[in-house]
Amino acid sequence: SQSVSSYVSGVKIREARLTAGMSRTQLAHAIVTSERNIARWETDRNTPRAEHLAAIAKATGRDMEFFFYSEGQEAVAPPGDGFQGSSRAPQTARARGGARRTRKTGELAA
Is the pTM above the cut of 0.90? Predict the structure, then answer.
């Protein structure tokens, strides 16, 4: 069985923020979290805890139910997010099987 958190829509978090006229930084300050968390939630890389979701709802003037996928609804990347409609983030060179440089020496590592 899936947890309730798997039904939270990052697209809807972003929509609520933008409709409220807020930047990621402004929303992060309003709900006492990091801008990085906001970005991760909006791109469905992570899911906000219930207290953060409630704070987002309050800060953006939305009901909690707004943030959940409806039955049969799929995650759709919003226009202009840089992913050309893809629901996954661009891969790093390492994830694509490419080489990466080590931190200490800068040499290529396997």
Answer: no
